[in-house]
Amino acid sequence: MPWSVERRDGQYCVVKQGDTSPVPGGCHATREAAIKHQRALYANEPSMTAAAIAPLKPPRDWFDRPEPDHPEPLTIDPDGRVHGHLALWDACHTGFLNGPLSECVKAKPSRSGYQGFHLGTMETAEGEMVPVGKVVYGGPHASLTAGLLEARAHYDRTSSVGAFVRARDGKHGIYLTGAARPDLTPEGLRDMRANPPSGDWRGMNGSLELIGALAVGVPGFQTPQVALTASGEGVEALILPGYSEVIDMEETVERGGASYTLRKRMISDSLDYLDVTAECLTAAAFTADQRARLAKTGAAMPDGSFPIRNCSDWQNARQAVGRAPAGKRPAVRAHIAKRGKALGCSED
Fold it and tell me: By CB neighbour count within 10 A (0-12 exposed, 13-18 middle, 19+ buried), where does 105 fall?
């Protein structure tokens, strides 16, 4: 007798499998409220049990599990133990949105010991309090133009917690170890196991730090999402698809081969007809030379900022207007309006 949360007429509604109408009183203004309602239904149904049998206080060694001698997809064991790589050091997450391949983007070690990710604590069976982060599911990534606090709030507001984990830099990549949520629903366990994790890095103290891990249904052809500062001074947000044993761009798509060319064309052409929002699109990182060339053609501001080659760039630029100096904003808005009209971009 499972229940799902569906979007209905601007609200989030709890719907029982086999029914077309929401459960009585099951529609809420926020997804968070609907998920709480869904969990209450599971808790009050004797025939329903949690999918994972992880203990409320897991053993400490679950969080200290050694990294294996090989890359490991994120795994949830039958007893609720969680372990696996979020990203690999040698995985080249290549963005090739429109035109030639852009630069190779890779995950980097944390300078802070993942303090930006380990924001909570969890008590172990031994009575110790262990700093942990969360692997969430059920919602979209935060917008690439969102600030650090806004991005964190987004995951708390739109997603459900599936696991509590520790992150550390291993030999092969970022390794996660911990425990599944004890009251994880059967649907939640299914989604966590079926969808590879995707990391979200944001600017903290002059460097990019991991702040979130989200189980996503489609990892975007293993391409990165990168947000640049309006002035072009550096990367301030990065979303990379996590390690997947099934989908590995470097192994399955040979550079220059037919499959590679087809995938490149699919990503480029998709912008012309897919109804997607800016936070769902993949944005390539611009080099200084690329910005200079775009500025000469009028596709970027004279200083190379706000480069707009297509409608996804246009959407990102519209969201980033507030980052421009106050005196520059009228010119930026005029530039965005001109490029949007020339490209035929829609505000929807």
Answer: buried
Quote the tokens at residue 344.
Answer: 């035929």
pLDDT tier, 348 (very low <50, low <70, confident <90, very high otherwise)? low
pLDDT digits (tens, 9 = 90+) for 237-260: 676 766 655 443 333 334 444 443
240 alpha carbon, distance to own chain's centre: 7
Distance CA 243, CA 176 (A): 12
Asked if residues 182 and 162 have their Cβ atoms less than 8 Å apart, the reply is no
Question: Any residues with CB less than 8 A from the CB of 135 and at least 6 apart, and which?
Answer: 74, 82, 161, 162, 163, 165, 176, 192, 197, 213, 214, 215
Q: Which residue in 149, 144, 283 sits closest to 224, CA to CA?
A: 283
- Burial (Cβ within 10 Å: 0-12, 13-18, ≥19) of residue 218: exposed
Spacing of C-alpha 201 from chain mean position: 9
Residues ≥6 apart with Cβ < 8 Å to 36: none
The pTM for the full model equals 0.58
Alpha-carbon span 216 to 218, nearest angstrom = 6
Closest residue by Cα to residue 3 from 185, 148, 181: 185
E strand or H helix at 333, and its extent?
helix 329-343
pLDDT tens across 140-179, in order? 777 766 778 888 888 888 788 999 999 999 999 999 999 9
